[in-house]
């Protein structure tokens, strides 16, 4: 672990970037690939660095990447990033590690590979959490979604009007998120996002509409799309 800057009060963000990027298939983990002239994760950090409500960022990376990420944090002037720490085997473990290094009463969790989140989306997500207890960014699904069994047979067609594709950031009270992670760990439950864990505690989670351009860079074709979005936004 490297302490890079002094901590401040208020809203903290855990940026998780400790994944291997298996679906991207590149030698370099996708969060470190360059978008224009900077690593993707740096673009993501810069959005939170610029946000007036954010006081503190904890960056979670692969153990072998902590030092080079700490160098980028200094080089790119991410002054709100107080710690760069190693993550765990699953995204959930990485968030849990991050949570142990941040003590603001409200926490946002964000994927390091979602560099196109906007200031207003972050604000809306945070404000909805403060008003309602917990909130997540999402967009309505555009396609018809089927449930399919292991042999390829359709078993159900859920009503599309009730289906949303979930994004980050996700905003929670720190106490709820910590309890949710501890409970999940005790029960051996692994979820694909943090709200799943908080829902299991019985805390209602409000969906706030995000945008289709807040993509998670996951597979090779997302890189071309990301470059196109970046050019449109002139990041
Ligand atoms: N053990 C892990 C796994 C994922 N992540 C982070 O969680 C975010 C969303 O995960 P995903 O897109 O699935 O990333 P990977 O796990 O790297 O991708 P893949 O599943 O294709 O291996 C990414 O910023 C990723 O770095 C993490 O911090 N720790
Ligand atoms: C948290 C998340 O980005 C919401 O869409 C997503 O669930 C991460 O999941 P992945 O399995 O790591 O892609």
Automatic annotation (TrEMBL):
<feature type="site" description="Positions MEP for the nucleophilic attack">
    <location>
        <position position="216"/>
    </location>
</feature>
<comment type="pathway">
    <text>Isoprenoid biosynthesis; isopentenyl diphosphate biosynthesis via DXP pathway; isopentenyl diphosphate from 1-deoxy-D-xylulose 5-phosphate: step 2/6.</text>
</comment>
<protein>
    <recommendedName>
        <fullName>2-C-methyl-D-erythritol 4-phosphate cytidylyltransferase</fullName>
        <ecNumber>2.7.7.60</ecNumber>
    </recommendedName>
</protein>
<dbReference type="InterPro" id="IPR050088">
    <property type="entry name" value="IspD/TarI_cytidylyltransf_bact"/>
</dbReference>
<dbReference type="InterPro" id="IPR029044">
    <property type="entry name" value="Nucleotide-diphossugar_trans"/>
</dbReference>
<feature type="site" description="Transition state stabilizer">
    <location>
        <position position="30"/>
    </location>
</feature>
<feature type="site" description="Positions MEP for the nucleophilic attack">
    <location>
        <position position="160"/>
    </location>
</feature>
<keyword id="KW-0808">Transferase</keyword>
<dbReference type="GO" id="GO:0050518">
    <property type="term" value="F:2-C-methyl-D-erythritol 4-phosphate cytidylyltransferase activity"/>
</dbReference>
<dbReference type="InterPro" id="IPR018294">
    <property type="entry name" value="ISPD_synthase_CS"/>
</dbReference>
<dbReference type="InterPro" id="IPR034683">
    <property type="entry name" value="IspD/TarI"/>
</dbReference>
<dbReference type="GO" id="GO:0019288">
    <property type="term" value="P:isopentenyl diphosphate biosynthetic process, methylerythritol 4-phosphate pathway"/>
</dbReference>
<dbReference type="Pfam" id="PF01128">
    <property type="entry name" value="IspD"/>
</dbReference>
<comment type="function">
    <text>Catalyzes the formation of 4-diphosphocytidyl-2-C-methyl-D-erythritol from CTP and 2-C-methyl-D-erythritol 4-phosphate (MEP).</text>
</comment>
<comment type="similarity">
    <text>Belongs to the IspD/TarI cytidylyltransferase family. IspD subfamily.</text>
</comment>
<dbReference type="InterPro" id="IPR001228">
    <property type="entry name" value="IspD"/>
</dbReference>
<feature type="site" description="Transition state stabilizer">
    <location>
        <position position="23"/>
    </location>
</feature>
<keyword id="KW-0548">Nucleotidyltransferase</keyword>
<keyword id="KW-0414">Isoprene biosynthesis</keyword>
């Amino acid at each position: 672990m490297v302490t890079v800057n002094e901590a401040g009060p208020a809203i903290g963000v855990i940026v998780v970037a400790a994944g291997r990027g298996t679906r991207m298939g590149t030698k370099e983990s996708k969060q470190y690939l360059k978008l224009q002239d900077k690593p993707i994760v740096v673009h993501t950090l810069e959005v939170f660095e610029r946000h007036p409500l954010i006081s503190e960022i904890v960056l979670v990376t692969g153990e072998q990447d902590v030092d080079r990420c700490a160098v980028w944090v200094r080089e790119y002037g991410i002054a709100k990033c107080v710690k760069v720490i190693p993550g765990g085997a699953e995204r959930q473990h990485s968030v849990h590690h991050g949570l142990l290094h941040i003590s603001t009463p409200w926490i946002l969790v964000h994927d390091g590979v979602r560099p196109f989140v906007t200031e207003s989306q972050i604000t809306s997500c945070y404000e909805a959490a403060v008003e309602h207890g917990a909130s997540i960014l999402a967009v309505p699904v555009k396609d018809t979604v089927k449930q399919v069994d292991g042999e390829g047979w359709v078993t159900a067609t859920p009503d599309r009007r009730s289906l949303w594709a979930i994004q980050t950031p996700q905003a929670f009270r720190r106490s709820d998120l910590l309890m949710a992670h501890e409970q999940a760990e005790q029960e051996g439950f692994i979820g694909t996002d943090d709200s799943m864990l908080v829902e299991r505690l019985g805390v209602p989670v409000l969906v706030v509409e995000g945008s289709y351009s807040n993509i998670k860079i996951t597979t090779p074709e997302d890189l071309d799309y990301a470059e196109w979005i970046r050019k449109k936004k002139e990041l």
